[in-house]
Amino acid sequence: MENNEKLLVGVSSCLMGEEVRFNGGHKKDHYIVQTLGEYFDFQPFCPEVAIGLGIPRPIIRLVQAAEGAPVRAVETKQAEQDHTQKLADYALSVTDKIQNFSGYILKKDSPSCGMVRVKVYREDKPKSPPQRDGSGIFARIIRERFPNLPMEEEGRLCDPVLRENFIERVFVYRRWQQLEQSAITPAKLVEFHTDHKYSIMAHDQTASKSLGQLVAKVGNCEDFAALCQQYIQKLMAIMTV
User: Fold this and answer.
1) By the 8 A CB rule, do 72 and 144 touch?
2) Nearest by Cα to 51 from 11, 85, 12, 14
3) Which of 102, 138, 161, 235 is deepest in the core (most CB within 10 A)?
């Protein structure tokens, strides 16, 4: 990685100061824009604007007809205005761009971009408080398509431990992307693991041993590509802890 290279990172547009929220405002995060902006080349997305919703626009929320039913994104005052499929389709339409990203920062609590603990309202229990167990439609699709991509919400970045963890994961994931671009060989995988061994151990020594045992199989592995995918999945899971 070149010293002056900025890492491509996706971000919710409102966090960059763009006035794209439902009320015509923004949620500019100065730490993201100014501090992280020194290292990251941010690529902003606003799924709600992208699917044609205006600024300002009606508020949307996540709803569920009953336990186990699909979660949908509908307008609060006109529930028949269902934007679920459009948001999902938009997420799928930008996967070619996002596959080149080394991380993604999302707007918390958003029915489109929220990563975790988004409110979900039950239509069969209208008087019950919403459950905070949902994720935004756009965010959910992106996480499903790119399970290894480091993702975080701006609210959680206020925690110094979570912030440091996210930044570390972004840089490690970028190095992995560069390794893939250079055509991974068994020798390169061993070198990559050796370079990151102590960082991995700092997260989980037991899991680090398991990962080391996986790397030790490269010499007699029948499906090296599958082993590499197993390696990065385990690596990113370990570093998230």
Assistant:
1) no
2) 85
3) 138
* In contact, 7 and 39? CB cutoff 8 Å: yes
Q: Is the dihedral of CA 70, 75, 78, 82 positive or negative?
A: negative
Q: What is residue 156's DSSP assignment?
A: G
Q: What share of the chain has pLDDT > 90, as a percent?
A: 96
Residue 109 has pLDDT above 80, yes or no: yes
Token representation of residue 80: 């028949």
DSSP-derived secondary structure for 150-206: -EEETTGGGSHHHHHHHHHHHHHHHHHHHHHHT---HHHHHHHHHHHHHHHHHH-HH
What distance in Å separates the CA atoms of residue 139 and residue 147, rounded to the nearest whole number? 11
Dist. CA 202–CA 2, nearest whole Å: 26
pLDDT of 150 higher than 80: yes
Q: Mean pLDDT for the chain?
A: 96
β-bridge pairing 131-134 and 118-122: antiparallel
Confidence at residue 2, expressed as pLDDT on a 0 to 100 scale: 55
Cα separation, 2 vs 49, in Å, equals 35
